[in-house]
Amino acid sequence: MNWSFQLYSARNFQPWEGVLATLGKLGYTQVEGFGGVYVDPKAFRAELDKNGLAMPTGHFSIDALESDFDGVRRTADTLGIKLLICPYLLPEARPSDAAGWRALGERLAKVGETAKSAGYGFAWHNHDFEFKKLADGSMPQDLIFAAAPDIGWEMDVAWVVRGGDDPLQWIEKYGKRIAAVHVKDIAGAGAGLDEDGWSDVGHGTIDWAGLIKTLRANSSAKYYVMEHDNPNDMERFARRSLAAAKTY
To answer: Other C-beta atoms within 10 Å of 45: how many?
Structure first.
């Protein structure tokens, strides 16, 4: 498997030239982009090439996808991104009822159509808020996908768990829509307090060995992306996580 690395995990460990050199030396072959690396796509692509790294997936805000798709396309083409991913919705923009979440799904469906016609894949990336039941008992994640039946999913398993749900049930339900997976771990009780409660992959509480087996058998996931939202040592996280993943 070509394990990828979400560059957001390394945002506090600049310069990017050093980050990419470290990832290349550790044995990574792919990275996932986010807004912080799109300032000069041509120069960033040169650094990727220098270190034997590809960027097949990238995160783009819903604002950029809806209002500046041409700009997204130029960035994606320069960096080699094939799967466009909408990663987040700011708290003030999150709907409070089922109709609002369905409306978001309809917006994402339109983006997906635009992306598809331009030759890209498109997926939604979850956090925990999509797994908090609404007053009527419905789940935002279900409402999004019902209104956008053709978009993919980048499943962030650890956020599903933090949302209080069982990732296995969601893999069974939407496995064929899972285009990518964020491989992230949650620290045990009292651990990782200086890292927002996250852990290096394989050193936390999530059964990644079992999940990888399940995902391989029951999903369409092509990309497995290491992520830690706030590591205090990027090299340690990248190294130990890759070593653990290679045993799965």
So the answer is: 18
pTM above 0.90, yes or no: yes
| Rounded Cα–Cα distance for residues 112 and 22 (Å) | 34
Return the exposure string of 8-33: e unless at least 16 CB atoms fall within 10 Å of the residue's CB, then b. Answer: bbbbebeebeebbebbbeeebbbbbb
Closest CA to 149 of 114, 102, 181, 189: 102
Task: Find all residues with CB under 8 Å of 90, minimum gap 6, and list them.
Answer: none
Q: Which residues of 102-139 are buried (b: 16+ CB within 10 A; e: fewer)?
A: bebbebbbebbebbeeeebbbbbbbbeebbeeeeeeeb
pLDDT digits (tens, 9 = 90+) for 72-125: 999 999 999 999 999 999 999 999 999 999 999 999 999 999 999 999 999 999
Question: Which residues neighbour 239 within 8 Å (Cβ) at sequence distance 6 or greater?
Answer: 26
**What span, in angstroms and rounded, lies between the C-alpha atoms of 52 and 118?**
27
Q: Characterize the bridge pairing of strands 54-59 and 83-86.
A: parallel
Cα angle 224, 158, 225; round to 5: 15
